[in-house]
Amino acid sequence: MQDLPPEIVVTALARPVGAVAYDTVIIPRAELDGPVAGRIEDILGSVAGFQQFRRTDSRAANPTSQGATLRALGGNAASRALVLLDGTPLADPFAGFVPWFALSPDRLASVRVTRGAGAGAFGEGALAGTIELVSANPTTRAATAEADGGSFGSVSVRGSIAVPLAGGGVALSGRFDRSDGYGLIPTARRGPADIPAGYAQGSAALRAVIPTGAGTLSLDALGYADDRTRGVAGVTSRVSGFLGSLRLTGGGRWRYDAIAYLNAPSFATTAVSLDPARAVAAPSSNQYNTPAFGTGGKIEVRPPRFGPVELRFGADIRADGGRTEEFARYLGGGFSQLRVSGGTNTVVGGFAEASIAPSDALTFTATGRVDRWTIAGGYLATRDLGTTVMATTRFADRDRVEPTARAGVAWRVAPGVTVRGAGYTGYRLPTPNELYRPFRVGLDATAANAAIVPERLRGTEVGLDIARPGLRLALTAFDNRVANAIGNATVGAGPGTFEQVGFVAAGGVFRRRVNLNAVGARGIEAEVHAQRGAWRLDLSYAYTDARVSAPGSALDGRIPANTPQQAAAATLGADFGGWAGSIAASVTVRYAGPQFDDDLSTRRLGSATTIDAQVAIPLRPTVDLVFRAENLADALVASGLSASGVIDRGTPRTLWAGVRIGARSGRAPRRG
């Protein structure tokens, strides 16, 4: 773990002793200014095994497709990894997507990614692993600002100010991004209805840290808003929300960490269907209001260590829910149906962990967790707008006691060389969106399924870590199996009328949410981080053989949708001396292997290789001129493929120039 400077106020408990047994990557502050796109998902894109459902980022993707997963356990837009911001669950409580656009790398002190199921607090949802975002503490007076202009009328402005106060401090930060957008459809296939995918999005954050004797009280508040056009006239999305938390951390002999939080987002979107010439866009749905809520809290206690033993105990509660209100079944002159659906998921649980380090070279750890989850209040109500006839289906409540566990061992066989192994179980509840809300994407339609059950994972891994001055190497082999994996299974094709969604036109496909028998994922992950003098090199590679197990079904043996077998990233950077400071330059190459955009493996998306580059030239010691290039070679990054063969593309070549004002942080190799 990277040592913290002595002036840093501790606002979270230190990493547990047993964390060394698990496959973990820590991205320190020095690397968070590195991504060319200036976005958290871009940073995570260089972590082996990290994946989103689509190959587009939070400027052009449909927000609901931006769940996070690890180890190619994809095939679903909801997050299969638990994403925490300062210990608070960040994903949308109704649909499970992550509002990446609301985050800014300059607000963070570090990012920690732990692969493999299970966690201490808030264990539900940590099916593929945990991504922990840690905010910077305002204990040093600082002010930073950056303004950039780029291709497609793009503008990005962000700034922050931190003021230390009485051993703590207050920080304010803000960010605004907008663009006229690029065309999602390649030029040869565009029609009159295709327009640029413009966006406008912003966020503001407040962080206050107050010392309380042996502890620290932290107050965090984040507000955000986003408005996107999805590249077709009439296809829009809007997201807004608030995330607030109060955290009390004690650092005495009995250490403790207590959090209470509120997550209150709202989402709206409109969709259309296009004629073959892409000339006429007819409305297909108007999801005009989807308010959601997430509330909860946790407490963790660590008694004084006795000998080589460290103990952790904790309990938490979490309630996620919401509803969706939308107009559906457009018939010529207007929508013919109003549809409202929703429900609530509640989890109450506790955990205990023991870690034993009988020597400096050996560590054993084991965690047991028991949850009681409840899926309740589910309903789907439809009203015929012509006859005003209302039909409501209420679904039976369900609950269960869910035990999970994980255990690991780490053995330092030589100085700087550690062998580790771990086994774990975990689970994820279906989101209210998966349970109750049918939806459309273009001509395709998918029905909800209130009977689907939680996903459950069992997995094992073995790994090797090598740490030398200026070098870190990590290699992990894993075998994970998700039972009852939630996916969208093809049931029929248009033209035809189907349950919940109504008429599906010719060329469209009807799917239903289902529990697949299982999804198995076996593979390797490798990472190398090296630094020599002014030069640094970061490499990551992931190979995963993921397959659906569905005996007797056409899905059996298929690769899950939007799951590449191979992904790799390489960044070469250097700091060169200059008259006003060092010139920082870097080049990043990313490769994503072929994948399929559907469950039957018929819509193939080719591989994609992109090149990003940037250089920061100092004009004064705290003023840099910054030049950035995304997808420098303008490679075609296919992020979607319709039934008619039309590609939805990711970010094309985008050039930026701007000015950055503020203290320059030094570079450091990534450490685990």
Write the SSE topology:
Layout (H helix, E strand, L loop, with lengths): L23 E5 L11 H5 L6 E2 L15 E2 L11 E5 L2 E2 L18 E8 L13 E7 L6 E9 L3 E12 L2 E12 L19 E14 L2 E15 L6 E15 L4 E20 L6 E22 L6 E23 L2 E26 L2 E23 L5 E5 L3 E17 L2 E12 L3 H5 L2 E3 L2 E4 L7 E14 L2 E13 L2 E8 L2 E3 L3 E3 L4 E7 L2 E15 L2 E15 L16 E13 L2 E12 L2 E2 L7 E2 L2 E13 L2 E8 L7 E4 L5 E3 L4 E8 L11
Parallel strand pairs: 4-7, 23-29
Antiparallel strand pairs: 1-6, 2-3, 4-5, 6-7, 8-9, 8-40, 9-10, 10-11, 11-12, 12-13, 13-14, 14-15, 15-16, 16-17, 17-18, 18-19, 18-20, 20-21, 21-24, 22-23, 24-25, 25-30, 26-29, 27-28, 30-31, 31-32, 32-33, 33-36, 34-35, 36-37, 37-40, 38-39
Describe the structure.
- The chain has 672 residues and is mainly β.
- It has a single domain, classed as Maltoporin, Chain A (Beta Barrel).
- The protein contains 2 helices and 40 strands.
- The strands form 7 sheets. The chain has a 22-stranded antiparallel beta barrel. It has a 5-stranded mixed beta sheet with strand order 1-6-7-4-5, with no helix packed on it.
- β18 and β19 form a beta hairpin.
- The longest helix is centred in the N-terminal third of the chain and has 5 residues, at 40-44.
- The chain is globular and about 70 Å long.
- The relative contact order is 0.14.
- The model is unreliable at 1-8 and 664-672 (pLDDT under 50).
Give a quick rundown of the structure:
Helix content is 1%, strand content 60%. It is mainly beta and 672 residues long. It has one domain (17-661): Beta Barrel (Maltoporin, Chain A), CATH 2.40.170.
